[in-house]
Specification:
Length: 84
């Protein structure tokens, strides 16, 4: 995984699902398999890009989490272009 400037390209948040269930329901697209009302305590990873959910991983499936991060993580900023 390209870790250059990672802290500016990826953000991780941890929340108690029951406290933000309504907000989670608002961002779930039609294709989502998540049922937040019956989810229980199983880990749930929602991947958002510009406020829109683009992927989900249910459970601690680290290969799927890493694969999804790689797929949706923006490229590192080109600091040479920014200096011009």
């Amino acid at each position: 995984m390209d870790e250059v400037d990672l802290e500016h390209r990826v953000k991780f948040y941890s929340v108690e699902q029951t406290l933000v269930a309504d907000q989670i329901k608002e961002i779930l697209p039609r294709w989502s398999t998540v049922n937040i009302d019956t989810k229980g305590c199983c880990p749930l990873f929602l991947f958002l890009d510009k406020g829109e959910m683009v992927a989900e991983v249910s459970g601690c499936d680290s290969p799927a989490i890493i694969r999804t991060i790689k797929e949706y993580m923006p490229p590192p900023p080109d600091h040479d272009k920014e200096a011009q």
